[in-house]
UniProtKB/TrEMBL annotation:
Coiled coil: none annotated. Residues 9-204 form the Dienelactone hydrolase domain. One of its GO terms (molecular function) is hydrolase activity. This is Carboxymethylenebutenolidase. Pfam families: DLH (PF01738).
């Protein structure tokens, strides 16, 4: 377990885990709500706070924090330490991320035996590299999303399929980026509810 106080850990030990990676809005109430729902589905959840408590309220401020986090090696180290904790538990685990978090989740698939069994990606991601052992990738996307384009979706999907993973894409017509995060500029209650039901149903049974 990472030894700093930047990781929220909820749920019992010894059950399948989820590494939950927040968007560029930081560790918002919406992220904590998702963590609680995953725990209710029987999962242990680790949520690293990559912004050290900051929760920006404008796109400009969020982008600045996201760029700084991506440029700081400590961010990848924090994510990797959480992944190592879950991988060491000897039970299946998944990585789940929103936008920025989805981008950071994808490299975990290339960690060989220490890779997550599944990835759950919301409106973001990148093609895998390394020794990919992740068996399933589920993408939840908003058609026409300028922040995660159809071309980027194709690159991620084809990259993971080429690495041998099963790829499932859920498209939420009429929704926008951040649709699954309550309180975000793009929140869509109907789309978020459908995404929630799909994710929880999958992660409740994939043990």
């Amino acid at each position: 377990m990472p030894t700093n106080d930047r990781v929220l850990t909820v749920g019992p030990a010894g059950v399948p885990g989820v590494l939950l990676l927040h968007p560029w809005w930081g560790m918002t109430p919406a992220v904590r709500e998702w963590a609680d729902q995953l725990v209710a589905a029987g999962r242990r959840v680790l949520v690293p706070d990559m912004f050290d408590g900051a929760t920006p309220t404008t796109e400009a401020a969020a982008e600045t924090l996201a760029d700084a986090a991506l440029a700081d090696p400590a961010t990848a180290e924090l994510v990797a330490a959480c992944a190592d904790t879950l991988a060491a538990g000897g039970v299946p685990w998944a990585a789940m991320g929103f936008s920025l978090g989805a981008f950071l989740a994808c490299p975990l698939a290339g960690r060989g035996d220490a890779a997550p069994d599944e990835l759950v990606l919301f409106y973001g991601g990148r093609p895998p590299t390394g020794d990919v052992r992740t068996r399933r990738v589920e993408l939840h996307v908003a058609p026409g999303d300028p922040w995660f384009t159809a071309e980027e979706l194709d690159e991620v999907s084809s990259g993971f399929r080429g690495a041998g993973a099963e790829v499932v894409v859920h498209r939420y017509e009429g929704s926008r980026h951040w649709f699954a995060e309550r309180g975000s500029p793009g929140f869509d209650a109907a789309a978020a509810g459908l995404a929630h039901d799909r994710v929880i149903a999958r992660l409740r049974t994939a043990r």
